[in-house]
């Protein structure tokens, strides 16, 4: 499994990263791990909302949405999330930088 | 007549409000604040829409901002995600109806147009709106998106609506397009509906 790098979401107000293939995350376990690290987190069963450097939404299928308009910051926050979850970072093998308004 | 318009920050609701104001109705607005499932942008857009329409029609148009994020969390934890949008709207309607009651308004209004998104199919609109007893006015119901956008551009709300923002993260991957009232009521059975709405209305902020 790898994450593509971040791309602008359809509303243009945040960046998202999507794993290929999709994951099946244990969100409750991830929520407990984040809380143990002192992170404020809302567990909405099918997604988590965590307050890291920026607010991040993590869906059960692994989609990560980072609420920022700054791509560099979004990539930094994504790397932080993946490190916390011990998921392979895209930075080392990133094939390209996709910045599109896909799905609009 | 006095009515309550639900304002989302999108393209449709300010156009709908424009038609109601143009028709001579006294309007107030309700915005269901969906953070943290969105960002600050919907509220900022609603405030800008209202600034524009207040000036145009010389009406105060008070805005009630009601917290909707906690309700979304409750729904996501306890109910079937496929009908999440219908349940979400039922709680919006209930909250807006309470504000209407407080303000002695006699109807609710919305920017819904038939068939535009999953929650606006005829079956889902019916499932959502039976949650309240007040009449619901939909000035845009028969218009298509191009017609609505043309009016939005003409009245100056379009450029505000299309500013970047986070789309609602609570929308399920595959929202139901045809819900039944029986199913929706069954989904709400484990919820303390009145307590949820009480809490939302208690935390209303007027802007």
Q: Could you please describe the fold and organization of this structure?
A:
- The complex is a heterodimer of chains A (104) and B (207).
- Chain A has 104 residues and is α+β, with helices and mostly antiparallel strands.
- Chain A has one domain (2-88): TATA-Binding Protein.
- Chain A has helices at 27-36, 71-84, and strands at residues 2-3, 7-8, 15-17, 19-20, 41-43, 47-51, 55-59, 64-66.
- The longest helix of chain A has 14 residues, at 71-84.
- The model of chain A is unreliable at 91-104 (pLDDT under 50).
- With 207 residues, chain B is of the alpha/beta class.
- Chain B has a single domain, classed as Rossmann fold, CATH 3.40.50.
- In chain B, strands 5-4-1-2-3-6 form a 6-stranded mixed β-sheet, with helices on both faces.
- In chain B, helix 1 (12-22) links the parallel strand 1 (2-6) and strand 2.
- In chain B, helix 1 packs parallel to helix 2 (41-57), helix 1 (12-22) crosses helix 6 and helix 4 crosses helix 5.
- The two termini of chain B are 22 Å apart.
- The mean pLDDT of chain B is 92.
- The A-B interface holds A 9-14, 42, 44-47, 49, 55, 57, 65, 67, 69 and B 36-37, 39, 41, 72-73, 76-77, 81, 164-167, 169-170.
């Amino acid at each position: 499994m790898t994450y593509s790098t971040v791309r602008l979401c359809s509303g243009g107000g945040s960046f998202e990263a999507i794993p290929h293939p999709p994951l099946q995350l244990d969100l409750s376990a991830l929520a407990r791990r984040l809380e143990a690290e002192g992170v404020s987190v809302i567990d909405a069963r099918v997604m988590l909302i965590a307050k890291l450097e920026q607010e991040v939404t993590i869906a059960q299928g692994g989609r990560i949405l980072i609420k920022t308009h700054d791509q560099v910051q979004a990539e930094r926050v994504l790397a932080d999330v993946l490190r916390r979850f011990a998921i392979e970072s895209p930075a080392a093998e990133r094939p390209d930088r996709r910045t599109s308004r896909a799905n609009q | 007549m006095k009515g309550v318009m639900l304002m989302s920050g999108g393209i449709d609701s300010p156009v709908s409000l424009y038609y109601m104001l143009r028709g001579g109705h006294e309007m107030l607005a309700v915005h269901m604040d969906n953070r943290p499932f969105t960002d600050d942008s919907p509220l900022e857009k609603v405030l800008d829409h209202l600034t524009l329409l207040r000036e145009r029609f010389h009406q105060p148009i008070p805005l009630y901002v009601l917290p909707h994020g906690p309700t979304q969390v409750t729904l996501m934890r306890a109910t079937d995600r496929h009908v999440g949008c219908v349940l979400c709207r039922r709680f919006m309607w209930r909250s807006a109806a309470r504000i209407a009651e407080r303000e002695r308004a006699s109807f609710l209004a919305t920017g819904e147009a038939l068939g535009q998104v999953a929650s606006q199919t005829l079956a889902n609109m019916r499932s959502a709106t039976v949650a309240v007893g007040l009449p619901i006015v939909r000035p845009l119901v028969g218009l298509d998106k191009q017609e609505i956008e043309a009016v939005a551009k003409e009245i100056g709300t379009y450029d505000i609506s299309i500013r970047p923002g986070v789309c609602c993260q609570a929308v399920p991957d595959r929202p139901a397009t045809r819900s039944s009232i029986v199913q929706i009521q069954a989904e709400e059975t484990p919820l303390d509906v009145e307590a949820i709405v009480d809490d939302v209305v208690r935390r209303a902020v007027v802007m």
